[in-house]
Amino acid sequence: MTEPIISIQNLSYQYALTEHPALNQVSLDIGAGEYVAVMGPCGAGKTSLSLSMNGIIPHMMAGGIEGKVFVAGRDTAETQVRELARVVGMVFDNPEFQLSQVTVREEIALGLENIGVPRDEMLRRIGEVLEIVGLSGFEERSPLNLSGGQQQRLAIAAALAMYPQVLVLDEPTSNLDPIGKEEVFAVAARLNRERGMTIVIVEHEVEVLATYADRILVMSEGRVVLNGPPRAVLSQVEALGRYHTRPPQVTALAYALEPNEHRLADYPVTLEQALAAIPS
Amino acid sequence: MAEFPIEADRLTHVYPGGVQALKTTSLQVQVGEVLGVVGQNGSGKTTLVKHFNGLLRPSSGRLLVMGHDSAGQPVYELARHVGYVFQNPNHQLFSTSVRAELQFGPNNLGLPPAEVQTRVEEAVAFFDLAALLEQHPYRLAFPLRKLVAMASVYAMGPQVFVLDEPTTGQDHEGFNLVRRLVQRLREQQKTVIIVSHDMALLAEVADRLVAMWAAEVIAVGTPREIFADDDVMRRTKLSPPQITQFSRRRWPGQPDHLALTVAEAVSWLNPGH
């Protein structure tokens, strides 16, 4: 791996008034340009991990922290959230929750005004990021009248306008219909492939992640318990079960046909791999 | 009991302002049937099912609940027969403890206290909520909150359950729990109507699917029939589950080898298994 863009070092975090740590001694490097997917059951710490990458943890949450997070070489504990927002863009699961302005243009301008971008530069960036997410021509529309997929692409555009190096997406498709899901996955994949943007995405859609991700992390009880390329991680069918996560359906099929706990498992994890690997 | 707990007879719905949200729809849903309603957002799914408990009223045509025209029957009356679990549990939960939440519906039906107690206990056992009874629903994580919402409808014991996107935001455990719930409701001869984008869930549990596009029902059939219908899949822009896609390409032109579950595909590839 090249120099990591995000380096998490022995990070533990516990929210105020809770009994268990949300993150428990997590160490993790993410390289520039990687597409990293984070899976795991509810309560495993996926959202807390996301929030630690842009300084919302620890700056805007009450809790106790140990360990260090460096983003583009800067210690997040000693850097303001608005500064970190220029490095790490964040998109949440509920697009309506993030959108507050009257028009699409104002929605994107909001973050740029906060960091003092001059007007001409602002208009140029708005045009550019709307083009990237396929919303050119929507400048005067109300965010509330967009489809779910369009709203989520607008939220991505607003994050991109800050010219971040990393985009963190926390369950960005969970409230979308199949067309909207596909739109969001396609934009994230294109940003990664064509612009080398680092993508960290929390998702349950394992069949989709298996085709897009360079690396998959599985979290359980505040720890990263599996970490590697999709085929290496998703082939560990029994371990995934222990962590209340499931493999892609074709992987479950291959495992059922030839269960193998002993050798290093290597099952197909995508449809094309399965068609090549499983004889009829 | 009525032959069809839910029957739509030339039902249409036009929203104020003139948008036709549902074109002429006739549909009969049976006792013990699990019916999936699929389609993109805005295709009319929610408009259709909101008629089933009176949240929306037909612009024309009729909607029969337990064999009786729902016209003139207030929502609280229809709620005896049709329970509606919203996609967002926050739209549904308002009590200060899980116990109070579960008691509310049966109490509201005017059931005697002993019966209310029995209903609550059954719901608690089925959804495994014993440890959460004194908690505030809003203190629970989203998947648990959603389970409480389902349990509160379950405690009312309706004949018909409408589940709106029951697996959205759920992890693998939540998915399995929804699947078990639906199977158990079927065993109890309930009628379950599931609005969902989760094709893997519907492939496993649904007897029939209603496919909607542009305010219209464009196909009704078994999951196998719908997933094998290229025209319907193309028009609705829906994708069958991965295992179904696998089986169609592994056994092209063999409609009897269209797998809905991993177990089915395993049985064809490894008959002795």
Account of the 3D structure:
The complex is a heterodimer of chains A (280) and B (273). Chain A has 280 residues and is α/β, with parallel strands linked by helices. Chain A has one domain (4-277): Rossmann fold (3-Layer(aba) Sandwich). Chain A has 13 helices and ten strands. In chain A, the strands form two sheets. Chain A has a six-stranded mixed sheet with strand order 6-7-8-3-9-10, with helices on both faces. In chain A, strands 2-1-4-5 form a four-stranded antiparallel sheet. In chain A, helix 5 (104-114) packs parallel to helix 7 and helix 7 (148-160) packs parallel to helix 8. Chain A starts with a strand and ends with a helix. Chain B is of the alpha/beta class and 273 residues long. Chain B has two domains: 6-240, P-loop containing nucleotide triphosphate hydrolases (Rossmann fold, 3-Layer(aba) Sandwich), CATH 3.40.50.300; 241-273, no CATH class. Helices cover 37% and strands 21% of the residues of chain B. Chain B has eleven helices and ten strands. Chain B has a six-stranded mixed sheet. Chain B has a four-stranded antiparallel sheet with strand order 2-1-4-5, with no helix packed on it. In chain B, helix 6 (172-187) links the parallel strand 7 and strand 8 (191-195). The longest helix of chain B is centred in the middle third of the chain and has 16 residues, at 172-187. Chain B is globular and about 60 Å long. The N and C termini of chain B lie far apart (42 Å). The model of chain B has no long low-confidence stretch (mean pLDDT 92). The interface between A and B is medium-sized, with 33 and 33 residues.
